[in-house]
Design a protein that fits this description.
heterodimer, A: alpha/beta, Rossmann fold, 5-stranded parallel sheet, B: alpha/beta, 2 domains, 12 helices, globular, Alpha-ketoacid dehydrogenase subunit beta (chain B), magnesium ion binding (chain B)
Chain lengths: 327, 342
Amino acid sequence: MAELARDTLREMQLRMLRIRAFDERASKMVKRGHIPGTVHTSIGQEAQVVGATMALGTGDYMSGNHRSHGHPIGKGSPLGPLMAELVGKATGVCKGKGGSLHLADFAVGSLGESGIVGSSIPIANGAALSSKVLNNGKVALAFFGDGAANQGVLYESMNMAGVWALPMIFLCENNQYALSTPAHTVTSGIISERAAGFGMPGIKVEEGQDVLAVYDAVSAAVARARAGDGPTLVEVMTYRYNEHSEGLRLGTDYRNADEREAWLRKDPIVLFRQYLASQGFSEEELDGLQATALAEVDAAVAFSDASPYPDLSVAFDDLYTDKESAA
Amino acid sequence: MTVMSYLGAIGAAQREAMDADERVIIIGEDVEANVYGTTGGGKSRSDKGDFLQRYGKNRIRNTPISEEGIVGAAAGAAMTGLRPIVDLSYSSFLYMAMDQFVNQVAKNRYMFGGQASMPVVFRSAMFYGLNTGAHHSDRPYPMFMNVPGLKIIAPATPADAKGLLRSAVDSDDPVLSFEACLLWSTKEDVDENEFWVPLGVARTAREGTDVTVVAISSSVPEAVAAAEELAKEGVSVEVIDPRTLVPLDRNAILRSVAKTGRLIVAEPAHRTCGAAAEISALVAEEIFDSLKAPIIRVTAPDMQIPFSPSLEKQMYPTRATIAAAIRRVVDLPALQPVATAV
């Protein structure tokens, strides 16, 4: 394991706490009707998100999926415009046009989330193609779940990335359920082992609740990509604590209580706090990180609350680059 | 000026675009070998391919047969600094990438609040009329007209094929180019210097005063031939080629029909929800009082394209079917029911 600076370790915990606090607040806001529609939270998956996003450089690209608030937060996006987007405000990161399913913050390399499972994988692949053609040293990473691992476009993309040696990381967030369907009941074999068929390394991170384990695995893939040695598939085992989406009540017990308890005992934020304490971080400092994250989320909600909804006059803006083309 | 074929003009435009901007790349199946004749020397298909030698493998890339992956990667590349031209060869292959076209290419700029630009061109050829069977004969541009966020061109002449493609490559919005194989060998004098035909501007292929025929793609030369035939009988026919279907030059169409009072719309696509239906509705909504006769659509019927030449050649608008429609609208008084023509 690489020796990381204390600032980096602190930032990892802070970003995980931000994601937890942001999504817990978003969940409440959905239930109170303050956020229209629904959201898909990353609660429980923070280590996997932050380990991957912090392994990327500031200028590197990534594409997300439907469970994707954490990705831009993990990459350093400010919370205010993200929260305002969830509410549908004009100050949202997508001006209120995207919502929870379509957060994007190009300023941090976030090329957007997709509500269609697997659909954003080739977008990141294309960003990797850009980097290769323009020779600018950037890498790209596609986040996708165990559900998307069974979409054909993943394998079209892995093949193209392999044959062109693109600077690309395919990051499978295996939270073990596609909505209510256990991954093992619809997935033949091991996802990470599929990499072999494309001549690229396939890495499985069993300890996906350990942010450092994820960080190390993805850092190695990033280094490989940046060196011109091509793509890597990284499968990270993790678990979502909440329902597939907030407010969803399936009425079936597709996940048993023992399983959930076992994963809760490996909570990524608690685990990393223990690690940080063992590295000499004081309790006061660790409590301070928690307070900082909560205060940032409070400020993000205040920013959203104070922001206007978009005026009808901007409804057609950004359909095309020129206004004349909009009917 | 120099004589260029429709296909050669596309090649010339691609070469100009590659020379003008290093961010332009060409990806697609078989582009390295110039199989479809647009990554070669230009002017005509028979010119030896030299794009690969000229621009190298970094900018001329053969792809695997993976349309969804290709279209998505082109979108991602366009969002991050390249200006790809994607050669999808047959228009029927676009269906393989429908999710990427509809959910990523068309929507990303809007749903990300303008953060994404999508300067990418998707070229494909409609192989209809060549006995290639039901899987290779599609004219699918109307279904993409139903997807906001895409721009759509359908050139009918070599000059437009060259000039529209340059504008498409320069556009920061995604453009789908639907090219007609039936027109590949059409030749005319084309400016060998750079020029751009603006998107969204129709061309008056022939001026007239009695009837307007709005014709699309390979229906344009058929409409012009029909107009010449009717001129002998004293009927003055105006032929409008929209050239760009999105954005559509509504004003050019409305101006012409306001002048003539009669409208025929001819296109090789299916009848239901086709471009002809949209143009008919536009005229009916905007200038109904100018109409002296019912609008007639001349289209392909709503059915599969049969293989046998004896069946297929009757499926698309011809000079005869367009002329028959013109005769109907000039011979019959307005407001009398007119049977729809195929």
